[in-house]
TrEMBL record:
Residues 9-240 form the Peptidase S1 domain. InterPro entries: Peptidase_S1, Peptidase_S1_PA, Peptidase_S1_PA_chymotrypsin, Trypsin_dom, TRYPSIN_SER. It comes from Amycolatopsis coloradensis. This is Peptidase S1 domain-containing protein. PROSITE patterns: TRYPSIN_DOM (PS50240), TRYPSIN_SER (PS00135). Pfam families: Trypsin. One of its GO terms (molecular function) is serine-type endopeptidase activity.
Amino acid sequence: MAQDVEPNLVGGTPATGETGWAASMHIKGRGFLCTGILLFRDTVVIPSHCAFKKIGGMEPWDAKQVTVHVGSKDRTAGEVLKVAQVIPHESFTWGEGGKEFYDAAALKLTKSANQQPLTLGGESAQPGDKVTMYGWGSDLPSGDTSNLPRKLQQLKTTIVDPAECADANIGVYEVCTDNPHGTDGPGGGDSGGPVVKVVDGVPTLVGIISRARDGARPGEDETVATDAPAFREWFYGKARGVTAAPPA
């Protein structure tokens, strides 16, 4: 794989407002792995790269090993839910397929959560859009993940021209987010964090944190996020338990 797919949220502040839809993904015997989003009451969405046991591998986690926490800004608290199925996108390639990553996956839960899901954006975000990222990843510029924050962090940023993410091999169905001050941005543990745009007063999901340039430390470069609205049919299909075609 050409890209570093473990982003950390550096330069953020403790999250405010309603964030019951923020999900933390945990692996039995390992602990916290990735941030996620409750998109339907029985479905959490994550990047495909968080759905596999090894970087570069194609063996998904055993659902019995996975739990998610929702409903709390503390990743060790909240409602704990078991996972029935881990569903990486069928076209995900670890970047080996050129500019088609399909870095999206679904975790089907064994029962519905008691939290309100995050609304999926109706249209893709555009350069200039103001957005907020959320995640439980490292808050250290070094990217050290040995002592991750327990409290959810947020970072206000902007969607920028895809050309700014060229070094991260940005491709189709992806958007590029700015690195404020040239120092702030996501890196390990923030993978899967929501990129949220407020539309008519309603927080909507427009991106899922994916990766930065290979070798970049948190905040050094812009960040690639999966274009969540482009995967609407796929997400809805997995929530309903039916096969859906990739974005057109």
